[in-house]
Amino acid sequence: MISLVAWMLIAISNKYTFVVKSSIEYVNIPEKKAFHPLQADTVQVSLKMTGWNVLLSKMKPTVSKIQVDLSTLASRNFIVFSSQLGFINRQFPADKQVVRVSPDTLYFDFSSQTQRKVEIRVPTNISFKKQYGIIGQTQTNPQHVTVTGPSEDVQYIDYLETDTVYGTDVHTDIRTVVNINRKQRTNITIHPAVAEVTIPVGELTEKQIEVPLHVRHSSPYTSVRIIPSKVTITALVSLKDYGKWTARDFEAVVDLDNWTKNQVKSLPVQLIKAPEFCEVVRIEPQNIDFFVRK
């Protein structure tokens, strides 16, 4: 047992070379120069570390990221990792030494650079306290960001999303700062790189609104009679905007093509217009009777 313990202590104190996969983040990008990497955006990093650190890395593997200095691209179309080992080692703890990066050389293809302003969109994953929800438009500051990069890439970017905003049992406005997600587009720059996000949250209440029904595709008939001629819509609306929404803000229709083509006995009600941030809970009745005269 003593020999085993002694052997284990020696084993974990010795240094070994351990290879991890790392993604690349480019820094110090030359101005007025757009580029395309000619290889994958991940590399193999060989780390010299103690057996104990190797054991921990195998028990809890993590995806690392290394920054690559592109300042030398101002005079050539490639960078060599072996000349950047000092810069890369400063990104790792002192007990982990980078000895090699594979491949050692990265090549780039240059193209014309352009700029474009695009809007920001905010994906969310939020659960609310009972009777609460989003009651207005999500606001970002700024509303647009400037994207700079190769013309052939930038022209297809119509918008950029931020990182997802999360929340649990939310019952007040959300105000936060989030990064603009470049979706692994390593050859573009975004300015600014962060945005302030405000999501208005408030208390909701049910409101019932009686809305007249309109008939579609009734022209082939002399007359069309529907029973009833109105439906009652129950919607969750913001408590502060309770008096704002009226029947004019909703539109409900029935389509006689459902009877002509499918020979249905009653027509389903379709809601084709409703205000933003009004959650329709139910429509009564959901189907209506009708009489037609040719």
The overall pLDDT average reads 86
- Judged by helices, strands and strand pairing, the structural class is mainly beta
Mind describing the biggest β-sheet? 6 strands, mixed
The topology string of helices and strands comes to: HEEEHEEHEEEEEEEHEEEEEEEEEHEEEE
| Number of contiguous helices | 5
Distance from first to last alpha carbon: 100 Å
Total beta strands: 25
What is the radius of gyration computed over CA atoms, rounded to a whole number of angstroms? Answer: 31 Å
Provide the β-strand percentage band. over 45%
Shape estimate = elongated
The helicity comes to 10-25%
Low-confidence stretches: none
List keywords for this structure.
294 residues; mainly beta; six-stranded mixed β-sheet
Polypeptide structure, described:
By secondary structure, the protein is mainly beta. It has five helices and 25 strands. Strands 10, 18, 20, 21, 23 and 24 form a six-stranded mixed β-sheet that branches. A four-stranded mixed β-sheet has the order 4-1-3-6. It starts with a helix and ends with a strand. 15% of the residues are buried.
Helix and strand topology:
Elements: H1 2-13, E1 15-27, E2 34-37, E3 42-50, H2 51-59, E4 64-69, E5 78-80, H3 85-89, E6 97-102, E7 105-111, E8 113-121, E9 124-128, E10 132-134, E11 139-141, E12 144-150, H4 151-154, E13 159-161, E14 165-170, E15 174-179, E16 189-191, E17 194-199, E18 201-216, E19 223-227, E20 230-238, E21 251-255, H5 257-262, E22 267-268, E23 270-273, E24 279-284, E25 287-293
Parallel strand pairs: 1-4, 8-13, 9-14, 18-21
Antiparallel strand pairs: 1-3, 2-7, 3-6, 5-7, 8-12, 10-18, 11-17, 12-16, 15-17, 18-20, 19-25, 20-24, 21-23, 22-25
